[in-house]
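Quick one, tokens below:
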């Protein structure tokens, strides 16, 4: 019989499930839903209280898993990473500490039985003054996907774009430090809630001039104070110098450029970008604009969804969760 596991990426705004063949390390099927931890927590807080927090979240999870019943069984284990282990999630767990092993051996995992199904909940990771939940699993998966393509025994940097982008320093197969940048959240607030929202229209950069505007924005973000540079978005609109869709690309470039401005003084052999296809392309393009004071690093990209599942599978094996007995 095929050995399978359900990989669950339960983020703030979405829930993704992937059925995996553990021997071949290959996906069998995948689904996505909008039942993010934030929304489910709000539903729980508004509920009559007939179910505990854990039971309420498990009810939502099992409803989504049922959509995979052509591919999994009622006792197929599920491993969950992301915000499900936060205080607004299924069950709050303590953070793992740095340094964090790239095989996932240092991960904090809580295992329990839900009916016939084993459930394994992965916690986040913390530095002295920073935290992550979900990205630690992507980090382990990215390292797995990068095997043979980077020198993780030397100093490398893994960039995880997102609402709260992470820059993780790797040394000797360990994550030794990281920084969080609120790039995605601030960008969203700027184009949807600020005065700049009148000067931009969200789009996929397919309009002519968007690529050039993105590069111009990157240069602006790399070299100028972002609080001054941002007002240029409105000026370009008010003076008729840029279409609103092109301005969206310009604003995106400014934000990403500002996030990456410290890289020029960073000494790393490899940079790995782990995000969506669009984010990987945008960050790789922006990194190419950085003027390096030392040797220019190699840049590779891995898909975030693949990295999450690969990281969960690696933790499942390294923690020998297949031997779990409730």
């Amino acid at each position: 019989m095929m050995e399978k596991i359900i990989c669950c990426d339960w983020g703030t705004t979405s829930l993704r499930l992937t059925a995996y063949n553990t021997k071949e390390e290959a996906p069998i099927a995948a689904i996505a839903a909008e039942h993010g931890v934030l929304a489910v927590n709000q539903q729980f807080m508004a509920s009559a209280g007939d179910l505990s927090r854990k039971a309420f979240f498990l009810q939502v999870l099992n409803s989504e898993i049922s959509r995979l019943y052509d591919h999994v069984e009622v006792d197929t284990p599920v491993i969950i990473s992301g915000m499900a282990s936060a205080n607004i999630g299924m069950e709050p767990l303590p953070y793992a500490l740095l340094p964090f092993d790239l095989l996932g051996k240092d991960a904090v995992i809580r295992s329990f039985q839900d009916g016939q199904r084993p459930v394994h909940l992965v916690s986040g990771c913390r530095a002295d003054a920073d935290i992550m939940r979900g990205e630690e699993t992507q980090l382990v998966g990215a390292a797995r996907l990068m095997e043979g393509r980077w020198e993780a025994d030397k100093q490398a940097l893994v960039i995880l774009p997102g609402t709260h982008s992470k820059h993780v320093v790797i040394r000797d197969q360990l994550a030794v430090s990281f920084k969080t940048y609120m790039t995605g959240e601030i960008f969203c607030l700027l184009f949807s809630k600020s005065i700049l929202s009148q000067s931009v229209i969200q789009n996929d950069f397919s309009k002519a001039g968007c690529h050039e505007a993105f590069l111009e924005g990157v240069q602006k973000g790399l070299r100028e104070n972002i609080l001054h540079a941002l007002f240029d978005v409105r000026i370009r609109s008010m003076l008729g110098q840029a279409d609103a869709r092109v301005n969206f690309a310009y604003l995106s470039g400014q934000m990403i450029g500002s996030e990456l401005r410290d890289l020029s003084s960073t000494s790393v052999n490899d940079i790995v970008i782990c995000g969506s296809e669009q984010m990987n392309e945008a960050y790789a393009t922006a990194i190419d604009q950085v003027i390096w004071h030392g040797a220019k690093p190699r840049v590779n990209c891995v898909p975030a969804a693949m990295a999450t599942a690969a990281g969960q599978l690696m933790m499942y094996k390294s923690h020998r969760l297949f031997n779990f007995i409730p």
